[in-house]
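In the previous lecture we treated proteins in isolation. Real proteins rarely work alone, and many bind small molecules. This record shows how such a complex is specified: first the sequence, then the SMILES for glutathione.
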Amino acid sequence: MAGKPKLHYFDARGRMEAIRWLLAAAGVEFEEKLIESSEDLDKLRHDGSLVFQQVPMVEIDGMKLVQTRAILNYIATKYNLYGRDMKERALIDMYTEGVADLSEMIMLLPLCPPDQKNAKLTLIRERTTNRYLPAFEKVLKSHGQDYLVGNKLSKADIHLVELLYYVEELDPSLLANFPLLKFEEKFIEKPEDLDKLKNDGSLMFQQVPMVEIDGMKLVQTRAILNYIATKYNLYGKDMKERALIDMYSEGVADLGEMIMHLPLCPPAEKDAKLTLIREKTTNRYLPAFENVLKSHGQDYLVGNKLSRADIHLVELLYYVEELDPSLLANFPLLKASSTPVAKLSSVLSGETWTHLFASPRAQ
Ligand SMILES: N[C@@H](CCC(=O)N[C@@H](CS)C(=O)NCC(=O)O)C(=O)O
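The predicted 3D structure, ligand included, written as tokens:
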């Protein structure tokens, strides 16, 4: 029998807390190996245990999984907390990502510079009261069941309950008006287009992107991507492949997000941010992907077959190249002449390829 999962993290809630909650809710015993010094972290990095040199890391079923979402998805799949079919899964993802958006705002509050703290707190209160809690209250009210999806406990409920604890800690009065929570490319060309969607109830969290697909109005980018990838068979052949695909996709997302946020950075901080992006691209993310490809000698990241991880990586490589083509110099396997770019362009028709990667988009 496989041993208990082993959790590697600091003696703090942080990003590991949701993993602890999910395991506890699934009734799984786990061990914690606390990182108590920078030497402990360096040791994990040097022995190759951390794909992106970051924790949380969980040893489970012979894998050393990093990337919080990849870990959560694996545990939820394994312990049957991830819906009965791909539509339920899409809804669970959508709710989970909404929870994550608000949790992240709350989690980052202590790191906020003192002179910005009040404004951030006001924003969190406003979003909690007017965006996130009403959305979840409405879901529960709409079907009158105890759980968010499919009348059955799922990871979305567990993440929501954890969030409600944080909200309560912050300010219990924020929960006052939500009795049910108290249980513990159509282009948007003008502001009126967005208002219309918000007002007709199409946007669960009043944000886009939103994709109408198979009778659902799906929001939350990751939920949308997960659904499309599942539906079109780009998400691995079993739950281990899926865990790896998630892990790589989340690594791509971390660097993608840094690059995407660069234009929004205050001018005085831009140079430092750019230096950080270059450093992380060269020393953390591209070596990690190059190593994966080198380690198995195949054209695709997972299972010798195109998956969403390859597609996200190719998109990222385009952004990196746009930023500074020399950043790709030391990564022959990632370069356009080789995998997976060439493979991907060969499976996509010329027109799709052009549409995906060459059409100018507003930032
Ligand atoms: N997207 C990653 C982010 C992980 C992350 O930011 N980990 C922090 C600790 S909470 C870390 O290891 N920081 C050290 C570093 O980035 O060098 C995840 O969700 O696991």
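Summary for your notes: Strands lie at 6-9, 31-34, 57-60, 63-66, 210-213, 216-219. Residues 14-15, 53-56, 66-68, 250, 254 surround glutathione (CB under 6 Å).
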